[in-house]
Write a structure and sequence with these properties.
Elements (H helix, E strand, L loop, with lengths): L4 H26 L5 H10 L5 E2 H8 L3 H13 L3 E5 L7 E5 L1 H22 L4 H19 L8 E2 L8 E7 L3 H9 L7 E5 L6 E6 L4 E5 H4 L2 E5 L2
Antiparallel strand pairs: 1-3, 2-3, 4-9, 5-6, 5-9, 6-7, 7-8
Helix pairs in contact: 3-4
């Protein structure tokens, strides 16, 4: 391959650093109370008034626990409304308040302005070639989403290596995992278990743990290979 992959990586990293730097300056001028992450959650909620917490977490690729904390903060700041379903009390719908819609409008206008500004001197044919190439990169990335989407470890197939990104459960359950050296970024391998009520995992040091299936569901991870 003649393309220098490191150069591609460097260019993309530099672009994102500069883009987020300018976005940060725009935030400080217009919406000082929001972080980048909070703004992008607002963008993900958008104009949808029937979006559940589960759907939002799936949409932005984070765990329910992380989504709940973020939405709680945005609700406290007045940008998000939460409403429990009248037909299914397990469902919680999220939507933007007027303050949230104003923030979304400001964010969208900023993106249009900055895109117009940085592309105005680029010849049309070069811009078109860039779009076509980047769409190929995006398609390739979409095909790799399984490697980035957090799931309970019990959802991974036998033989899969999993990197832990969150440990749920009671303090007793969390302490149990910690006592066995299982914490965030621990690598585990899913093993075959002949009993559906049990779940087997192998640590990098070769230690094999047999867990109750319900306890195992507290381990949230992403594919590591």
């Amino acid at each position: 391959m003649t393309v220098n992959i490191q150069r591609v990586n460097d260019v993309l990293e530099e672009y994102y650093k500069l883009f987020y730097k300018t976005e940060d300056m725009a935030l400080k001028r217009g919406i000082k109370a929001l972080t980048h992450t909070e703004l992008h959650i607002i963008e993900s909620v958008g104009q949808d008034t029937q979006l559940t917490m589960n759907e939002l977490a799936d949409k932005i690729g984070i765990t329910m626990g992380t989504a709940t904390v973020a939405i709680s903060k945005l609700s406290d700041k007045g940008y998000i409304d939460r409403a429990r379903s009248t037909t299914d009390r397990r469902k919680v719908f999220v939507s933007l308040t007027k303050k949230g819609i104003d923030a979304l409008t400001y964010h969208n206008n900023y993106h249009k302005m900055i895109m117009a500004s940085i592309t105005e001197s680029i010849p049309e044919k070069d811009l078109q070639k860039f779009v076509e190439t980047f769409e190929i990169i995006l398609d390739s990335l979409r095909n790799k989403t399984d490697y980035f989407k957090p799931m309970t470890i019990t959802d991974f197939k036998e033989g899969t290596k999993v990197s832990i990104v969150e440990i749920k459960g009671t303090p007793i359950v969390q302490n149990y995992f910690l006592s066995h050296g299982i914490e965030n970024f621990t690598l585990l391998k899913v093993l075959k278990s002949g009993d559906k009520s049990l779940f087997k995992i192998e640590k990098e040091d070769g230690e094999v743990l047999t867990l109750d299936i319900l306890d195992a569901k507290n381990l949230i991870g992403v594919k590591a290979d």
